[in-house]
């Protein structure tokens, strides 16, 4: 028994030391960024929604999402204001969402209405400046800045936009956050699961040592390399070092530590960083740039090989077996663990999905938070007060 107690104590001390290594000022933070959600909250009586209404709502599915969502676990956290600079508590997460003007009122709004509120800071990048409001005109009003990007707003120029965006993020936010999460306007992010993942010892031990990028890995054949590198000298230098390209899909988003952001921004003018064009797929281009700086996508699967990041929505992540999947989908996973589908599709601590349109976002929020929080809160008003959120009433509306 004494040996077991010493082992437990040693593990606890190790985790404390790792936390101090990553965020040496965290112990002095006057206000923690995350607190436990164990305290009960009295129901708000003016909300007519009842526990019976909630049960009927939670039994409903949307577009086959529930078969995957039932495999996941999320523990809601009460969010508190995050101190800026060195006094913040690790992990401080900046979420930036890339969108365009025509999607601000639907897709960007759905992000702000749901998962975006759990980031330490949320900003949008678009082709026009604007503001996205949540609960406008109420005591819970929140607003999120939409920053104009001076780059073409079409899909073909995502690489040009990403370079401009990451340069801006580096200039304005580098010192205030530990992780920088790139998301699309149809990404759904489980922020609590991301926080837990980047607290893992293997991540924390490498945080200051290596540029880290976390997401859903793809493996494409080296035959694409000649297309990306028209410069013969750069192309030959690449072939001398590598024989394949592994990159993180941009769809479900990816997390970058500060060192990754530093190296990427510094490399933008270099020839091997595809400076000759702005029209490459941004996720591939980012990976190609960072290979020269030893910045490779991290293997984020769990011990059973289940993905934490998913390039599809919950339904398609569950059903994409080899006999149904496209040839490219199968090929993109060869050599990096292969495909997982059905009940093995998704790690319980999944971090992100792609292709989640607004109704899908509200449904994920409903199922994984409002319906499965374990709090038995009868209505959304009470839930918002308990977790210091301003979730949209669409979360408690019946799915279409």
From TrEMBL:
InterPro entries (alphabetical): C1GALT1/C1GALT1_chp1, Fringe-like_glycosylTrfase
Domain of life: Eukaryota
Pathway annotation from the record: Protein modification; protein glycosylation
Record bears the keyword Ribonucleoprotein: no
Keyword terms: Glycosyltransferase, Membrane, Nucleotide-binding, Signal, Signal-anchor, Transferase, Transmembrane, Transmembrane helix
An MF annotation (GO) of this entry: glycoprotein-N-acetylgalactosamine 3-beta-galactosyltransferase activity
Listed PANTHER family: BETA1,3-GALACTOSYLTRANSFERASE, GLYCOPROTEIN-N-ACETYLGALACTOSAMINE 3-BETA-GALACTOSYLTRANSFERASE 1-RELATED
Membrane topology, as annotated: Single-pass type II membrane protein
Record-listed E.C. numbers: 2.4.1.122
Domain Fringe-like glycosyltransferase: 92-291
Presence of keyword Nuclease: no
Pfam families linked to this entry: Fringe
GO cellular component annotations of the record: membrane
Protein localization: Membrane
UniProt family annotation: Belongs to the glycosyltransferase 31 family. Beta3-Gal-T subfamily.
Protein name per UniProt: N-acetylgalactosaminide beta-1,3-galactosyltransferase
């Amino acid at each position: 028994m004494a040996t077991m107690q010493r082992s437990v104590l040693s593990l606890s001390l190790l985790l404390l030391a790792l936390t101090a290594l990553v965020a040496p000022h965290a112990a002095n933070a006057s206000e923690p960024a995350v607190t436990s959600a164990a305290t009960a909250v009295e129901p708000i009586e003016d909300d007519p929604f009842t526990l019976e209404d909630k049960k009927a709502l939670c039994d409903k599915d949307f577009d086959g999402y529930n078969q995957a969502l039932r495999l996941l676990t999320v523990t809601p956290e009460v969010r508190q204001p995050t101190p800026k600079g060195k006094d913040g508590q690790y992990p401080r997460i900046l979420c930036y969402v890339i969108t365009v003007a025509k999607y601000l009122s639907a897709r960007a709004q759905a992000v702000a209405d749901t998962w975006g509120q759990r980031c330490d800071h949320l900003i949008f990048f678009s082709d026009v400046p604007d503001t996205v409001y949540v609960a406008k005109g109420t005591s819970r009003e929140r607003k999120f800045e939409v920053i104009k990007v001076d780059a073409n707003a079409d899909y073909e120029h995502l690489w040009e936009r990403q370079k401009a965006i990451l340069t801006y993020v580096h200039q304005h936010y580098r010192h205030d956050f530990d992780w920088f999460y790139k998301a699309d306007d149809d990404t759904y992010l489980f922020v609590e699961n991301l926080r837990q993942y980047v607290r893992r010892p293997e991540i924390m031990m490498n945080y200051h040592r290596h540029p880290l990028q976390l997401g859903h890995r793809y493996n494409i054949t080296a035959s694409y390399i000649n297309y990306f590198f028209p410069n013969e000298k750069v192309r030959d230098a690449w072939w001398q070092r590598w024989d394949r390209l592994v990159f993180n899909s941009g769809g479900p988003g990816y997390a970058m530590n500060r060192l990754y952001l530093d190296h990427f921004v510094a490399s933008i003018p270099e020839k091997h960083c595809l400076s000759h064009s702005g029209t490459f797929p941004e996720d591939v281009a980012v990976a190609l740039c960072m290979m020269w700086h030893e910045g490779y996508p991290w293997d984020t699967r769990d011990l059973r090989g289940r993905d934490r990041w998913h390039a599809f929505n919950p339904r398609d992540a569950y059903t994409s077996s080899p006999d149904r999947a496209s040839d490219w989908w199968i090929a993109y996973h060869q050599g990096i663990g292969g495909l997982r589908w059905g009940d093995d599709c998704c790690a319980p601590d999944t971090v992100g999905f792609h292709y989640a349109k607004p109704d899908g976002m509200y449904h994920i929020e409903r199922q994984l938070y409002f319906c499965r929080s374990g709090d038995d809160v009868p209505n959304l008003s009470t839930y918002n007060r308990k977790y210091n959120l301003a979730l949209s009433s669409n979360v408690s509306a019946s799915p279409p």
